[in-house]
Specification:
- Two copies of one chain form a homodimer.
- In chain A, α2 packs across α3 and α4 packs across α7.
- Chain A has eight helices and eleven strands.
- The first copy, chain A, is an alpha+beta fold.
- In chain A, the strands form three sheets. A four-stranded antiparallel beta sheet of chain A has the order 1-8-3-6. In chain A, strands 2-7-4-5 form a four-stranded antiparallel beta sheet.
- The first copy, chain A, has two domains: about 120 residues, Jelly Rolls (Sandwich), CATH 2.60.120; about 90 residues, Arc Repressor Mutant, subunit A (Orthogonal Bundle), CATH 1.10.10.10.
- Chain A is globular and about 55 Å long.
- The two termini of chain A are about 25 Å apart.
- Chains A and B meet through α2, α3 and α5 of A and α2, α3 and α5 of B.
- Chain B binds a DNA duplex through α6.
DNA sequence: CGCTGCTTTGAACAACTTCAACTTCTGTGG
DNA sequence: CCACAGAAGTTGAAGTTGTTCAAAGCAGCG
């Protein structure tokens, strides 16, 4: 339970200047005067409580959002009334970029816990980028990264076994926590098993069984939402390896 | 075999001004003088032959590309030596947006047939967008659309049956042909069954069987790469519907 | 304390994959 | 122009993985 914070999460009305997420967020590589301008257009909203919505499907697109603290999930309702979780969003990560094209949010964003976000009115941002090449570049970089990440996930969903999917998921979360200055080996998952299963394109039961198996194999410790990663290397192997070499890699530990 | 073209594909050195893909491409909603400026930075490369590469994994990112005619596939090699096809690219579609973030292409782009592309040096494009808000907006729109489309595919890969995946794939291709002024009910697939299977996260055999079944059910006519869509509605139902109601929807026809 | 929702576990079942054989197509050289 | 080799596609049967269904265990909360 020693979730050692290396950085402090920004509280509700800290400026970009003082924000610990600066290096992950839009302000990256922007300085002084320019940063103030960006800071000026940003609205800091009051925190969302668990299960509250940041936006709904079809909401008009006016702003993009950055998570300051807490976490959200985004999901799209499918025709047959189910949901497809399209992503989890941790501090410093952007939301809403998929709505620029159509002007409407194609998905729902729901807080998984108490969560605060910065709202960046898109029109103002676009104006600002006109005079700030570095800001524009950073925006394009972040969008590009999102495309890249989505493709990674596509790969995961298309090709990999349940084992590989959950491994990759845990590694991804772990890495993202690390980048934010938290422990990469011990953390709380704010999302339910159901959300994870949905996100990974698996049944809840399968995810549950995988958690159990990873624990039995000593790769992780999972006590409900509290996760400890014991064997990063094996996890990495499992995440990247095809069906053929899987058993080998797995029974090695069992 | 009446592949009626409603528009002519641009030949190798037609200007943006005269290009029939204008409405789908970056120039959309850009006019006269501005269009000339964009036109000036674009390099029209000599056509690629089938199986030639536009870029390789790790190639330095200098430009984004637009398909003028023909088609390409992009794919990433996975750790275990396999490939994951991440997309097919038809005339008017952009390639390379996933490389902005890292400065290196994360995937390979390979021509599926004789293919010509426009090369747009990214640095020049970024400069140009500084003085052309509409161009910037269009670039952001196109990137956003890519994120959105990727999420649709994630949904497909995560949730759907083989039947639904192939239906959705055929509908997607059909729609994209339509937008480009070709017939939406009759077209040639430039990619192999193998590529399709890989893209959809299925075994080749499964895809083959699905083609056969769709044909038996009278939904499509498939003679190798030549496809005729007979029953758009059923296809749409199959693409969007959950496992539960599937059989119903399918046997309805059989 | 007993409800509700989330998680875990077991067993039967279905979908897709794998393996293997066969057919059809493509293109290359004699 | 035909023959042949290799690639691509199709088909069948057996085997796995993951799903579904059903039920029990657990934590949180009024």
């Amino acid at each position: 339970m020693r979730d050692r914070k290396v950085i402090d999460l920004p509280s509700s009305n800290v400026s970009c200047n003082e924000c610990s997420l600066q290096q992950l967020c839009l302000p990256q590589s922007i300085n002084g005067n320019e940063l103030d301008k960006l800071d000026n257009i940003i609205e800091r909203k009051k925190p969302l409580k668990r299960n509250e919505y940041l936006f709904q499907v079809g909401s008009p697109f006016d702003s993009i959002y950055v998570v300051r603290s807490g976490s959200l999930k985004t999901y799209s309702p499918t025709i047959d009334g189910q949901e497809q979780v399209t992503g989890f969003h941790l501090p410093g990560e952007l939301l809403g970029l998929d709505a620029i094209g159509s002007g409407q949010h194609p998905c729902v964003a729901k807080a998984l816990e108490t969560t605060s976000v910065c709202e960046i009115p898109f029109e103002s941002l676009e104006e600002l980028t006109q005079s700030m090449p570095t800001l524009q570049h950073q925006l394009l970089r972040l969008m590009s990264k999102e495309i890249f990440d989505d493709q990674e996930l596509m790969l995961l969903l298309g090709k990999k076994t349940a084992e590989a999917r959950l491994s990759a998921f845990l590694l991804s979360i772990s890495l993202r926590f690390k980048q934010r200055g938290f422990s990469s080996t011990e953390f709380y998952l704010s999302m339910s098993r159901n959300d994870i299963a949905n996100y990974l394109g698996l049944a809840v039961e399968t995810v549950s069984r995988m958690f159990t198996r990873f624990q039995e194999d000593g790769i992780i410790n999972a006590e409900r939402k509290h996760i400890v990663i014991n064997d990063w290397d094996t996890l990495q192997q499992l995440a990247g390896i095809s069906q053929l070499s899987e058993k080998e890699a797995c029974t090695k530990k069992a």
